C-alpha cells in the first residue's frame, strides 16, 4: 500500500489531498449527493478549508479517501495518442507522455477517475471503533461494483490495517439500497432512532448498523468471490 493508497481490482482509495477540495465541495453541493444526508446547507470554500484542516488532517481520528475507478484506455484513444507521439518524435518534440499524468497511453496502462468519497471517522483508540461514510458522486459511476469494492477495501483496511473492532454506520430512512449493501458485508441493524432528523419536510427515522471484526471475517469470503466475478 504505497503512500496510503488502498488498491483493488477496479477501484482504488487515495487519501484526500488539498488539491481535491474544490472537486469534493462541488460533489457535496450536488443535490444528488446531499439529499440522503442530514445537512443540506451549501458548503463554502471557507467551510471546506476548515473541514480539511480540522477533519482530514486529523489522521489519528479520521481517514478520508477519494474513490477512484480504473478506466482502461480504448483502442481508438490509444491509436490517436500513438499517432500524435510518432509525429512528435519525427519532429523532435516532447511526447504526450511527458504532459499527461494518469492518462492511459497504451493497452497495458490505465488511468483512475475520481468518482466519490469514503471515510472512517471518529475513531477512538480505546474503543477501536470508527464511523463509515461514503458516496459515489458521479451518476455514471453508480454501478453496484464500484460501491461494492470501495466499501470492501475500506472495511478491509479498517479491520486489517487499523485494527478496528467495530465499524458503525447510520442510514437515513428512504436509503434502503445502502442499508441493504451494508448488510451484505455482515452489518447488523442495531437500532432505530425514531423521527431523529427533519428531512425533506418531515421527521424521518435513522437506522443504526454495526459491523464487528468477526462479522466481517465471516462475510468477506462471499464478498471476495462476488468481486472476482465482476467485470470492468
From TrEMBL:
Transmembrane segments: none annotated. Coiled coil: none annotated. InterPro entries: Acyl_CoA_acyltransferase, GNAT_dom. Residues 68-209 form the N-acetyltransferase domain. One of its GO terms (molecular function) is acyltransferase activity, transferring groups other than amino-acyl groups. The keyword Metal-binding does not apply. Keywords: Transferase. The keyword Transferase applies. It holds the Pfam family Acetyltransf_3. This is GNAT family N-acetyltransferase.
Amino acid at each position: 500500500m504505497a503512500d496510503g493508497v488502498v488498491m483493488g481490482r477496479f477501484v482504488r482509495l487515495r487519501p484526500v489531498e488539498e488539491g481535491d477540495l474544490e472537486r469534493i465541495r462541488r460533489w457535496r453541493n450536488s443535490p444528488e449527493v446531499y439529499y440522503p444526508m442530514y445537512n443540506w446547507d451549501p458548503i463554502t470554500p471557507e467551510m471546506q478549508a476548515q473541514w480539511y484542516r480540522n477533519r482530514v488532517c486529523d489522521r489519528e481520528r479520521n481517514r478520508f479517501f477519494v474513490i477512484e475507478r480504473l478506466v482502461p484506455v480504448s483502442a481508438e484513444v490509444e491509436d490517436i495518442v500513438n499517432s500524435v507521439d510518432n509525429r512528435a518524435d519525427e519532429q523532435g518534440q516532447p511526447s504526450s507522455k511527458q504532459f499527461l499524468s494518469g492518462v492511459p497511453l497504451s493497452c497495458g496502462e490505465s488511468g483512475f477517475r475520481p468518482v466519490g468519497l469514503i471515510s472512517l471517522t471518529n475513531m477512538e483508540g480505546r474503543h477501536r471503533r470508527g464511523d463509515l461514510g461514503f458516496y459515489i458522486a458521479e451518476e455514471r459511476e453508480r454501478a453496484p461494483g464500484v460501491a461494492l469494492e470501495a466499501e470492501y477495501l475500506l472495511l478491509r483496511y479498517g479491520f486489517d490495517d487499523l485494527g478496528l473492532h467495530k465499524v458503525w454506520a447510520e442510514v437515513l430512512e428512504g436509503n434502503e439500497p445502502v442499508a441493504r449493501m451494508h448488510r451484505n458485508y455482515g452489518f447488523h441493524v442495531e437500532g432505530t432512532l425514531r423521527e431523529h432528523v427533519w428531512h425533506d419536510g418531515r421527521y424521518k427515522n435513522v437506522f443504526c448498523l454495526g459491523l464487528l471484526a468477526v462479522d466481517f471475517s465471516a462475510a468477506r469470503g462471499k464478498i471476495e468471490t462476488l468481486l472476482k466475478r465482476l467485470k470492468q
